[in-house]
Design a protein that fits this description.
heterodimer; A: Rossmann fold; B: about 250 residues; Rossmann fold; 7-stranded parallel β-sheet; 7 strands; about 45% helix
Chain lengths: ~250, ~250
């Protein structure tokens, strides 16, 4: 397989300032893509990306809880570069609690950002992709809906929702050359870990055959593959990047 | 199913379709059944009457299970009537099908709330009594549409795969308390819901299903009863497909 390149392609990445998202933005730009880096917090991160890649990276602040946020990111890409080839949803938001103590607000807050936010930006991205009869959508999900997780029933439900949504949508839009896949990272060193129980890291390290957490940059190659033209016969798939944890 | 006799179950959305069949199946093993329904009191009463006519115990309870207060009232009714809840079957669900680009936001939200948030609320409400007795069985009725997607059902597939995510997350939290959480994922089952699918999709489905026919609700209910029984003690966070061989995940 030739090296994955994205020359002249245009991508929108949500969560562009996140632990994994900012690496995806950089990897796409390094390989020639122009990228709208959607972000909500941590403008320092996306500003640094813009400094490195100048014209190729355009940070746009958007709160995916707002109904028009997805449209804003897509419209920005179209007005700047007049096309959209790739959408990568890498935003993340947690509100952890055991089910017995989880408030309905915590439940809905995570569903709103992770599931409805993803749905909204996919809807916005589909029109230009359908016109061009080409598109790659990659959702960054996680092990939670596949393996369960403590105190994250809302996150597991929301990400499971993204997986189910993506498969149903993949069946609907395959005829337009639009492929939709998901990368589900396993136990990864990322900012969210700070919110977890202190026993999490030793536990996670111990149960994985590789005996360590994954690094954010180990998730990126799979995302790039699915975002590329090379993924032409893959759609509706979920690929776990999980160090051999479950092997299913 | 051994060990079910005398237990108490809540079956949501039990006035018709798969829920009705689950209620009748559980009752046939001498489980006392709360027949939850939202709209059709007449149909729910018929399910209760059928159970009672066969010598079983059942009670119909109206509740909109997207509303926390009504969920609590549903569980309280079971506790007040029979003193325990051993089994929760999260079966209630709706569809609002449309191709994604034509789907209305309110149809997306309605399905997520009715099919996913309702299950969260019901599970949350039964945890305290189940933990107290250190025994419980929760079976979530998901769908093949969640595991494999389905044209026109982006909202339903999201809700049902979300329900599978909830199943596994909840399972990890509560197994230590003797509460077993699993899901079933029926494929194309002969119900009113399937009547709403376009003819071309039904033709396509019959073509891809190795058994070359739709399933019946009576072919789903026994699997649910098994996962709801004491025999399922070492089956945790599982998704049992009942789909005539469609997906074989």
């Amino acid at each position: 397989m030739s090296a994955l390149t994205f020359h002249n392609q245009v991508a929108v990445v949500t969560g562009g300032s996140g632990s994994i998202g900012h690496l995806i933005v950089a990897a796409l730009a390094e390989r020639g893509a122009n990228v709208v880096a959607g972000y909500h917090q941590h403008d320092v991160v996306v500003n640094a990306l813009q400094k490195t890649f100048s014209e190729q990276v355009l940070p746009v602040q958007a709160d995916l809880r707002e109904p028009d946020a997805g449209q804003l990111l897509v419209d920005t890409a179209l007005s700047r570069w007049n096309r959209l080839d790739i959408l990568i949803t890498a935003h993340s938001m947690i509100a952890n609690a055991p089910v017995a103590e989880m408030s309905l607000e915590q439940w809905h807050a995570v569903l709103q950002v992770m599931l409805r936010g993803t749905m909204g930006i996919c809807r916005a991205a589909l029109r230009p992709m359908q016109r061009a009869r080409y598109g790659r959508i990659v959702t960054l999900t996680g092990y939670q809906p596949l393996a369960g997780a403590l105190d994250q029933a809302n996150y597991a439900a929301a990400l499971g929702g993204v997986l189910g949504f993506g498969k149903a949508l993949a069946r609907e839009v395959a005829a337009w050359g639009i492929n939709i896949n998901s990368v589900a990272p396993g136990l990864i060193e990322r900012a969210q870990i700070a919110a977890f129980d202190p026993s999490y890291v030793p536990w996670a390290t111990n149960i994985v055959p590789l005996k360590r957490l994954g690094k954010p940059n180990e998730v990126v190659p799979t995302v790039l593959l699915l975002a590329s033209e090379a993924a032409s016969y893959m759609t509706g798939q979920t690929i776990m990047v999980e160090g051999g944890w479950r092997m299913v | 199913m051994r060990g079910l006799a005398g237990q108490v179950a809540i079956v949501t959305g039990a006035s018709r379709g798969i829920g009705r069949a689950i209620a009748l199946e559980l009752a046939s093993w001498d489980v006392k059944v709360i027949v939850n329904y939202q709209h059709n009191a007449t149909l729910a009463a018929e399910v209760v009457a059928a159970i009672q006519a066969a010598g079983g115990s059942a009670q119909a309870v109206q509740a909109d299970i997207t509303q926390p207060a009504q969920v609590q009232a549903l569980v309280d009714t079971a506790l007040a009537t029979w003193g325990a809840v051993h089994i929760l079957i999260n079966n209630a669900g709706i569809t609002r099908d449309a191709l994604f680009m034509r789907m209305k936001d309110h149809d997306w939200d309605a399905v997520i709330e009715a099919d996913l948030t309702s299950a969260f609320l019901c599970a949350q409400a039964v945890l305290a009594p189940m933990r107290q007795q250190r025994y419980g069985r929760i079976v979530n009725v998901a769908s093949l549409a969640g595991l494999a997607g389905n044209v026109g059902q982006t909202n339903y597939a999201a809700a049902k795969m979300g329900l599978i995510g909830l199943t596994k997350a909840l399972a990890r939290e509560v197994t230590a308390d003797g509460i077993v959480v699993n899901a079933v994922a029926p494929g194309y089952i002969q119900t009113e819901m399937i009547e709403t699918l376009p003819q071309w999709l039904r033709t396509w489905a019959l073509d891809v299903i190795p058994l070359k026919r739709f399933g019946t609700v009576e072919e789903v209910a026994p699997a649910v009863a098994f996962l709801a029984s004491p025999a399922a003690a070492y089956i945790i966070g599982h998704v049992l497909t009942i789909d005539g061989g469609w997906v074989m995940p």
